Amino acid sequence: xxxxxxxxxxxxxxxxxxxxxxxxxxxxxxxxxxxxxxxxxxxxxxxxxxxxxxxxxxxxxxxxxxxxxxxxxxxxxxxxxxxxxxxxxxxxxxxxxxxxxxxxxxxxxxxxxxxxxxxxxxxxxxxxxxxxxxxxxxxxxxxxxxxxxxxxxxxxxxxxxxxxxxxxxxxxxxxxxxxxxxxxxxxxxxxxxxxxxxxxxxxxxxxxxxxxxxxxxxxxxxxxxxxxxxxxxxxxxxxxxxxxxxxxxxxxxxxxxxxxxxxxxxxxxxxxxxxxxxxxxxxxxxxxxxxxxxxxxxxxxxxxxxxxxxxxxxxxxxxxxxxxxxxxxxxxxxxxxxxxxxxxxxxxxxxxxxxxxxxxxxxxxxx
Length: 367
Prior knowledge:
This protein has 367 residues and is mostly helical. The chain is built from 14 helices and three strands. The protein has one domain (4-362). 68% of the residues lie in helices and 4% in strands. The longest helix has 34 residues, at 264-297.
């Protein structure tokens, strides 16, 4: 039975932010998938409605779930995720040249999405067990590095460079939160620069082309540079106020590739312009700041690190996707959280938001 105090401390602001973002997402997806000779209501749009209904159900379940239990489940969840990532490489479904999906009958999902929550959980567990250190040195961090490296390596083998890099950034953010000795950060930065040539030659040919097209989009305008060129045309043509709902020419004529997934922000920017884009980014900013406030006011170290890690997931997905579609970063296939179409991403995001809500509701209660 749910404690009455939890209902009194229910975080209505977080729920309203999610509901508002869901409305924007469905409106934008309707436009992105609007058929030229139809009245709308495409299969993709209807599927996303179902995913949102499932997502909010998961959100409410995780809200009622005491996040303290997750501290005991952190390592089992992590190892279960590793098993799923291994299964992807063995029996995974191949789509667009990558083996990233596991199929359960009619349902397919990406274990790499679950890895985002798993890595935050296990790092929060690791650092909360070791007390409130002032500063961590490199020798103190070998276990978090190993915990991060295993799923990153398995995701790279799919291959999915974007998700692997994203997981590394989230892990690095969690490590920064718990404070690292500044000399250790300098060593890490220097090591990354020295490893850059090795990383470059380890990339596949299409991945190298994406980086080169980022540096020079006109080098291959109909090939590797096509996505980013069309995205920048769509965003720029929206100007300040946008072309209006269902009036984006790049979207309507399908010049914009992956317009319902990776480039959903470009659809919004073309139709609602700079004003609409800024409004959306302000919603994300408020969600991030609200999450940081939850992390700051949490009564225990595990909850604080866990909440901050979830905020890192939100921040990096927004930063990478918006940077990608505007030409500030290479195209790496990271969807925009709570806006792009996708069942796996949405369910794991809503589960993470449910955990954040659980932390928020219980920060006012003695355990």
